[in-house]
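retry 2 of 3: previous attempt timed out while embedding iron/sulfur cluster. Reduced batch size to 1 and resubmitted. Inputs unchanged:
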Amino acid sequence: MDFVVQGEGEQAILDIVEGRAQERVLRCRRLDNLDDLPMPAWDYFIHQPYNWGGDWFPGTPVFTMNTSRVCPFHCTFCSVGSIWGRKYTGFSAERIVADIDYLMQHYGARGIYFREDNFTVNRERTEKFCHLLLDRGIKIAWACETRVDTLDRDLVDLMHRAGLVTLYYGVESGSQEVLNRLQKKITLDQTRATFGWCREFGVKTPPASLWGCLGKHPRISSKPWPWLTI
Ligand code: SF4
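retry 2 succeeded.
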């Protein structure tokens, strides 16, 4: 390899291709304002044979977006903190909606999958994002990843009305003792409640981690989870 880039790579890749990189290992400082970043050069990718679909979405193409960096929680098994550090940053709601509008106008985007650790950690941003989509009549299906303790019924309702089709959240375990040991800081009741709201509004729920692993296990995938009887 020619270079190793540690941290956020946008400025580093520019320094490398424009010949300014002095070291082969580039350690980058965190960006203060993600809204300063330009939109990805989608023209280079849109005609490439990538998978532009997604099982959760009603149509294609589906674009991935990353609108925040860092998760402020401290689950013991998670590497997010060691990759990003602890300073949470995110695009503004206005910038996210502007990017979605551009993707719809230029590429006919039908879905957005927010590929980040915790899309709803900033509730004010989440609500503003939803209201902007609703107020501007922007109809797009979207999915995001999050934690059950950053949601409540009103927020799931609002997100669903704004186009949310799938919530992907970390169930991790059906044992409160295991959750406590993992320092997940959620309760089984919070997880049950979130499944209930999603079912009520018709939002799909592919829960993450342990559930997903067990679901693929040939000897236990057919057994029901007694605590998940909602
Ligand atoms: S909530 Fe999710 S992203 Fe955040 S530390 Fe825990 S496992 Fe990692």
